[in-house]
TrEMBL record:
<keyword id="KW-0315">Glutamine amidotransferase</keyword>
<keyword id="KW-0808">Transferase</keyword>
<dbReference type="Pfam" id="PF13522">
    <property type="entry name" value="GATase_6"/>
</dbReference>
<dbReference type="InterPro" id="IPR029055">
    <property type="entry name" value="Ntn_hydrolases_N"/>
</dbReference>
<dbReference type="InterPro" id="IPR017932">
    <property type="entry name" value="GATase_2_dom"/>
</dbReference>
<protein>
    <recommendedName>
        <fullName>Glutamine amidotransferase type-2 domain-containing protein</fullName>
    </recommendedName>
</protein>
<feature type="domain" description="Glutamine amidotransferase type-2">
    <location>
        <begin position="2"/>
        <end position="301"/>
    </location>
</feature>
Length: 301
């Protein structure tokens, strides 16, 4: 059992309140996943800003100062800014995402550090332990931006580590959180490895994220990629997947994993349980519904 929550804001006057809205949503899902938690934040001025790319990293034993000093010597990156948020460190620079990721990966090669997020709009923060305590560690209530997703994990198929926590972000500004399990993830993992994909964990959810990134790289849009996932993945799942401009929900053919969507003119939100939505402004006027099996629900900014 895990907990999923997320919100896309339509009303720009709510952007300064993204963290204030997302934090109680996450905390109300804490009972569904006490092992670890993570968030994906789009447009949070603490980690992203126009003209810059951001890389989110679990540094492990590597000191932040080591990374800062090494990055300062990379003339391709220009000025680099580094922000620590609990177990996660976010690095940003005025360059393309792949240029920054390449520079960071070269420095961290062989250290055991893991890149967990990348893009122009997205920062990923995650760690192990009580989700409510992690929200405080991330100072989540101060987050700003236009979109955020969060996950609380009860581990059932792989280790309890920050690297195994959700969200999984394996392509620029793409983010996935998952409640359930994929029965055939090992088969699809081998297929993706044969295509050249390298995995950071043995978590089945990472297989889903890399599958979507692969389909998007082949030209599918997010809606088509999610339909392709439904065709190829066996198991029980609810997925919330976001990009820089999209917010999408899909469930498997049985749809036994709980999910509820709420929509108003000011925002669209989803959660594993209604209790995570109950405090949102205007919830009493929202359109509330349970997503149908294998129906892709997608909203764009």
């Amino acid at each position: 059992m895990c907990g999923i929550v997320g919100i896309q804001l339509r009303d720009e006057t709510l952007y300064p309140n993204l963290g204030a809205l997302l934090t109680p949503m996450l905390c109300h899902a804490a009972h569904r996943g006490p092992d670890s938690a993570g968030v994906g934040l789009y447009g949070d001025a603490r980690y992203t800003r126009p003209g810059f790319s951001s890389i989110s990293v679990l540094l492990g034993e590597v000191e932040v100062s080591q990374v800062t000093t090494a990055l300062a010597r990379d003339r391709d990156l220009g000025a680099v800014e580094v922000t620590a948020a609990g177990p996660t460190t976010v690095i940003r620079a005025a360059t393309e995402p792949w240029t920054l990721e390449r520079g960071v990966a070269e420095i961290l090669d062989g250290t055991g550090a893991i890149i967990i997020g990348r893009g122009r709009e997205l920062a990923v923060l995650k760690g192990t332990g009580d989700p409510s305590a992690l929200a405080a560690t991330f100072d989540l209530t101060r987050a700003t931006g236009y979109q955020g997703i969060a996950h609380t994990r009860m581990a059932t198929e792989s280790a309890v580590t920050s690297a195994h926590s959700h969200p999984f972000s394996v392509a620029a500004d793409l983010c996935l959180v998952h409640n359930g399990s994929f029965a055939n993830h090992a088969t699809i993992r081998r297929q993706l490895q044969a295509e050249g994909h390298v995995f950071d964990s043995d978590n089945d959810s990472e297989v889903g994220a890399r599958y979507l990134a692969h389909k998007l790289s082949e030209g599918s849009d997010l809606e088509k990629a999610l339909r392709q996932l439904c065709d190829e993945f066996d198991g029980f799942y609810t997925l919330l997947v976001t990009t820089a401009d999209s917010f999408a929900v899909v469930r498997d053919a049985i749809a036994c994993k709980p999910a509820v969507i709420a929509q108003t003119d000011s925002w669209v939100a989803m959660a594993s349980e209604y209790r995570s939505l109950a405090g949102l402004p205007g919830i009493d006027q929202a359109r509330l519904f349970e997503p149908e099996p294998e129906e892709v629900y997608l909203w764009q900014r």
